[in-house]
Amino acid sequence: MAFMAQTIAERTQPGQRQSIEESNYVGHVYARAEGVAGVVIADKEYPTRVAFGLLNKVLDEFTTRYPQGTIAGASSSTGDSDFSYPELQQYIVTYQDPKQGDTIMKLQRELDETKIVLHKTIDSVLARGDKLESLIERSDALSSQSRMFYKTAKKQNACCIIS
Questions:
Q1: DSSP state, 148?
Q2: Could you report how far apart the first and last alpha carbons of the chain are, in Å?
Q3: Where are the beta strands (DSSP E) in the chain?
Q4: What pLDDT, on a 0 to 100 scale, did the predictor assign at position 76?
Q5: In angstroms, what CA-CA distances link 82 with 30, 34, 85, 120?
Q6: The listed CATH number (1.20.1530.20, 3.30.450.50, 3.40.50.10190, 2.102.10.10) that belongs to domain 2-98
Q7: pTM of this prediction?
Q8: pLDDT of residue 80
Protein backbone atom coordinates (compact mmCIF):
# COMPACT_ATOMS: atom_id res chain seq x y z
CA MET A 1 0.00 0.00 0.00
CA ALA A 2 2.90 2.35 0.68
CA PHE A 3 4.14 1.76 -2.86
CA MET A 4 0.66 2.44 -4.24
CA ALA A 5 0.36 5.64 -2.19
CA GLN A 6 3.77 6.91 -3.26
CA THR A 7 3.19 6.05 -6.91
CA ILE A 8 -0.19 7.75 -7.24
CA ALA A 9 1.03 10.78 -5.26
CA GLU A 10 4.00 11.19 -7.61
CA ARG A 11 1.86 10.79 -10.73
CA THR A 12 -0.81 13.30 -9.70
CA GLN A 13 -0.32 16.83 -11.01
CA PRO A 14 -0.32 19.65 -8.43
CA GLY A 15 -3.81 21.00 -7.82
CA GLN A 16 -5.51 17.77 -8.92
CA ARG A 17 -7.54 15.13 -7.15
CA GLN A 18 -8.03 11.63 -8.39
CA SER A 19 -9.10 8.17 -7.29
CA ILE A 20 -7.31 5.03 -8.41
CA GLU A 21 -8.78 1.52 -7.95
CA GLU A 22 -6.50 -1.36 -7.08
CA SER A 23 -7.97 -4.76 -6.15
CA ASN A 24 -10.55 -4.13 -3.41
CA TYR A 25 -9.14 -0.72 -2.50
CA VAL A 26 -9.35 2.80 -3.83
CA GLY A 27 -6.52 5.29 -3.42
CA HIS A 28 -7.79 8.85 -3.19
CA VAL A 29 -5.03 11.40 -3.77
CA TYR A 30 -4.97 15.18 -3.56
CA ALA A 31 -1.80 16.94 -4.72
CA ARG A 32 -1.57 20.52 -3.53
CA ALA A 33 0.16 23.32 -5.42
CA GLU A 34 2.49 23.75 -2.41
CA GLY A 35 4.16 20.47 -3.35
CA VAL A 36 2.40 18.37 -0.72
CA ALA A 37 0.16 15.41 -1.52
CA GLY A 38 -2.12 13.36 0.66
CA VAL A 39 -3.36 9.84 0.00
CA VAL A 40 -6.23 7.96 1.60
CA ILE A 41 -6.51 4.27 0.82
CA ALA A 42 -9.92 2.84 1.64
CA ASP A 43 -12.21 0.06 0.55
CA LYS A 44 -14.50 0.59 -2.43
CA GLU A 45 -17.55 1.31 -0.26
CA TYR A 46 -15.92 4.26 1.51
CA PRO A 47 -17.51 7.51 0.25
CA THR A 48 -15.25 9.47 -2.10
CA ARG A 49 -16.54 12.83 -0.85
CA VAL A 50 -15.61 11.94 2.73
CA ALA A 51 -12.12 10.79 1.70
CA PHE A 52 -11.43 14.04 -0.16
CA GLY A 53 -12.90 16.04 2.73
CA LEU A 54 -10.44 14.35 5.08
CA LEU A 55 -7.55 14.97 2.69
CA ASN A 56 -8.48 18.63 2.33
CA LYS A 57 -8.71 19.11 6.11
CA VAL A 58 -5.44 17.32 6.86
CA LEU A 59 -3.52 19.07 4.08
CA ASP A 60 -4.87 22.49 5.13
CA GLU A 61 -3.71 21.95 8.71
CA PHE A 62 -0.40 20.45 7.61
CA THR A 63 0.46 23.32 5.24
CA THR A 64 -0.51 25.83 7.93
CA ARG A 65 1.83 24.15 10.41
CA TYR A 66 4.63 23.62 7.89
CA PRO A 67 4.68 26.45 5.32
CA GLN A 68 5.98 25.82 1.80
CA GLY A 69 9.54 26.99 2.55
CA THR A 70 9.78 24.66 5.53
CA ILE A 71 8.72 21.64 3.50
CA ALA A 72 10.95 22.37 0.52
CA GLY A 73 13.98 23.17 2.70
CA ALA A 74 13.69 20.02 4.82
CA SER A 75 13.16 17.62 1.96
CA SER A 76 15.94 18.98 -0.25
CA SER A 77 18.69 19.62 2.32
CA THR A 78 18.36 16.61 4.62
CA GLY A 79 16.51 14.17 2.42
CA ASP A 80 14.31 13.50 5.44
CA SER A 81 10.63 14.14 4.86
CA ASP A 82 9.38 13.00 8.28
CA PHE A 83 7.21 15.70 9.85
CA SER A 84 5.43 15.31 13.16
CA TYR A 85 1.65 15.42 12.82
CA PRO A 86 0.06 13.68 15.85
CA GLU A 87 -3.48 14.81 14.94
CA LEU A 88 -3.38 12.39 12.01
CA GLN A 89 -3.93 9.42 14.33
CA GLN A 90 -7.08 11.05 15.75
CA TYR A 91 -8.38 11.74 12.22
CA ILE A 92 -7.79 8.11 11.27
CA VAL A 93 -9.78 6.94 14.30
CA THR A 94 -12.57 9.46 13.69
CA TYR A 95 -12.89 8.77 9.97
CA GLN A 96 -12.95 4.95 10.35
CA ASP A 97 -16.70 5.43 10.35
CA PRO A 98 -17.41 8.02 7.63
CA LYS A 99 -20.63 9.06 9.41
CA GLN A 100 -18.59 10.22 12.42
CA GLY A 101 -16.17 12.38 10.48
CA ASP A 102 -18.46 13.88 7.89
CA THR A 103 -21.08 16.41 9.01
CA ILE A 104 -23.26 15.89 5.94
CA MET A 105 -23.42 12.14 6.60
CA LYS A 106 -24.22 12.86 10.27
CA LEU A 107 -27.06 15.11 9.21
CA GLN A 108 -28.29 12.51 6.73
CA ARG A 109 -28.30 9.84 9.44
CA GLU A 110 -30.19 12.17 11.81
CA LEU A 111 -32.68 12.97 9.06
CA ASP A 112 -33.20 9.27 8.38
CA GLU A 113 -33.82 8.63 12.08
CA THR A 114 -36.24 11.57 12.22
CA LYS A 115 -38.03 10.26 9.13
CA ILE A 116 -38.49 6.86 10.78
CA VAL A 117 -39.93 8.51 13.91
CA LEU A 118 -42.27 10.62 11.77
CA HIS A 119 -43.48 7.56 9.84
CA LYS A 120 -44.24 5.78 13.12
CA THR A 121 -46.07 8.86 14.42
CA ILE A 122 -48.12 9.18 11.23
CA ASP A 123 -48.98 5.47 11.35
CA SER A 124 -50.15 5.78 14.95
CA VAL A 125 -52.21 8.90 14.11
CA LEU A 126 -53.83 7.05 11.21
CA ALA A 127 -54.53 4.07 13.46
CA ARG A 128 -56.10 6.41 16.02
CA GLY A 129 -58.16 7.97 13.21
CA ASP A 130 -59.45 4.51 12.24
CA LYS A 131 -60.33 3.81 15.88
CA LEU A 132 -62.11 7.17 16.13
CA GLU A 133 -64.12 6.40 12.98
CA SER A 134 -65.08 3.04 14.47
CA LEU A 135 -66.13 4.72 17.72
CA ILE A 136 -68.19 7.30 15.82
CA GLU A 137 -69.94 4.51 13.88
CA ARG A 138 -70.69 2.64 17.13
CA SER A 139 -71.90 5.85 18.73
CA ASP A 140 -74.24 6.53 15.79
CA ALA A 141 -75.56 2.95 15.96
CA LEU A 142 -76.09 3.28 19.71
CA SER A 143 -77.89 6.59 19.22
CA SER A 144 -80.25 5.10 16.62
CA GLN A 145 -80.92 2.07 18.86
CA SER A 146 -81.55 4.42 21.77
CA ARG A 147 -84.09 6.38 19.69
CA MET A 148 -85.81 3.16 18.65
CA PHE A 149 -85.91 2.02 22.30
CA TYR A 150 -87.37 5.40 23.32
CA LYS A 151 -90.08 5.19 20.65
CA THR A 152 -90.94 1.61 21.56
CA ALA A 153 -91.05 2.45 25.23
CA LYS A 154 -93.27 5.45 24.55
CA LYS A 155 -95.71 3.26 22.59
CA GLN A 156 -95.70 0.65 25.32
CA ASN A 157 -96.35 3.22 28.02
CA ALA A 158 -99.09 4.93 25.96
CA CYS A 159 -101.36 1.89 26.23
CA CYS A 160 -101.04 1.59 29.95
CA ILE A 161 -102.00 4.78 31.73
CA ILE A 162 -101.68 4.74 35.44
CA SER A 163 -104.34 6.70 37.23
A1: H
A2: 111
A3: 17-22, 25-31, 37-43
A4: 46
A5: 19, 17, 9, 54
A6: 3.30.450.50
A7: 0.55
A8: 47
